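Narrative of activities, Objective 1.

The group set out to show that a structural description can be obtained from nothing but a protein's sequence at a throughput compatible with the screening campaign. Below is one input-output pair from the validation batch, recorded exactly as produced.
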Amino acid sequence: MIARIMGEGQIEIAEADLDVLNALDGELEAAIAAGDEETFRSRLHDLLDKVRHVGKALPDDSLEPSELILPPADASMDEVRAMLGNEGLIPG
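Output recorded for this entry:
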């Protein structure tokens, strides 16, 4: 699966890593639902860090279609809320 972190580039993620990413996504959604800015910020950074850690960065000139679009680390809670689908940022 190819993910794009806005402003950073594309990362290839193995299907086997989606469960842990979904768990972090759920925590991020809960923080948004609670309006908890501090937890939201922490969980967003946790999610993006995990994607970077488990994924393999694609070359900058790669033109693969992205199956996931993730917000940048400095995104606001409202911006991330607008990006959430029925299954969060990471469909599961």
